[in-house]
Amino acid sequence: MKLGQSRQQRIITVTVVAFVLLAILLVALDWNAVSQLVDKADWGLTLVALLFTALSYLCLSYSFVTVNRVFDIGMVWRELLEIGFVSTALANVTGLGGAAAHSLRLVVMQRQGRPSGNILAASISHTYLYIVTLLGLLPIGLIYLIANHQLGEGVATGLRFAIVMLILAIIVATAIVFVSPIRSLVLRILNRLWHLFKHRTSTSFLSDFDATLTLGAAKIRSHPLALALPLGSMLANLVFTLVSLWFCFAAIGNPLGFGVLVTGFVIGISAGNLSMVPGGLGVQEASMAGIYALFGVPFAQGVLVSVLFRVVYDFVPFFISLAVYRRLLRRRS
C-alpha cells in the first residue's frame, strides 16, 4: 500500500515539474517583450486586469460544473470547479485544440469511477459551446466596425466575407455535433484521409468519438433549458475577459472601443488556437497586434499589450493552477 502511494506521489511530482518547465519555457520565449513591460505598464491597472481575469476563470469553471450536471456526472461541485479551472489554465497555455484539457479531465475524473464516455462527452460539449460563444462575438464586432469606422473598400469586403464564413463555420460545426448522418460522413472522409496519408485506418477511435458526440447531442436535446446556465456563464466569462484586455490596453496607455477590441481579441485567439504552436505563442500576439494596427494602434504597442494579456490571462493562472492540480491528484490517490 505504501509502495503504491509512493509511486503515485512520484508521478504527481514529475507531472507538476513538467508543467512548471513548460511554463518557464513559454515565458522565456516571450521574455524580450515581457521585459519591456516593466517600465511601460501601469501595474495598478494590471492588477485590475488580473481581477477580471479571476472572474473570467470563475465563470468558465462554473460553466464546466453545469455542463457536467447535464451529463449526470455527480461529483462535488467544488471539485468540478477546480478541475474546470486547472484544465482551462492548461488549455490556454498548451493550445492544440484543448487536447491536454480533455486528457486531464479524463485522468482526474476517471480515477473517481466516472464513465469515460460521459466525461469525454461533457468535455467536448463544453468546448463546443465555448467555441460557438466565442465565434459568435466576432460577427458582432465586425458589423460594429463596418458601421462605425471608415474602412477601405478592400478591407470592408474582406470583413463581410469573414462574417459570412464565420456564420457558415458555426452552422457546419453545429450540424456535425447534432446531425448524425453529417457527422458520419465527415468521420468517414477523415478516416479515408488518414488511411491515405498513414496507410492505416482509425475506425475504432472515430467510432468511439462518434458515440461520444451522439451521447452529448442526446443529452443536450433532452435538457435544452439546462444549457442556459452554462451559456450564460460563458458569456460572462467572455465579457470579463474583454474587460481584462481593455485594462491591459489602458495599462499601456491606449484603451480601445468595443468593436476594435472584440475583433482583435477573437481573431488573435482564433489564430492562436488554430496554429500548431503550443498556446499559439507568437501567433496570437502577432495576429492581435496586426489587427489592432489596421485600426490605428501602433504595432509595437499592440505587441506589448498582447504580451501583457498573455501574462495576465495565461501565465499567472497557470502557475496558480499547479497547486490546485497537485492537490487534485493527491486527493484522487
Summed up:
The chain has 333 residues and is mostly helical. Helices cover 85% and strands 0% of the residues. It has one domain.
Structure description:
By secondary structure, this protein is an all-alpha fold. It has one domain (2-332). It contains 13 helices and no strands.
Number of helices, counting only DSSP H or I runs of 4 residues or more: 13
Helix content: over 70%
**Strand-residue fraction?**
under 5%
| Dominant shape | globular
Please summarize the sheet with the most strands: none
Q: Notable features of this structure?
A:
single chain; 333 residues; mainly alpha; 13 helices; 0% strand
Describe the secondary structure blueprint for this structure:
Layout: H1 2-29, H2 31-40, H3 43-70, H4 77-94, H5 99-110, H6 116-148, H7 153-178, H8 180-198, H9 203-222, H10 228-252, H11 258-274, H12 283-294, H13 299-332
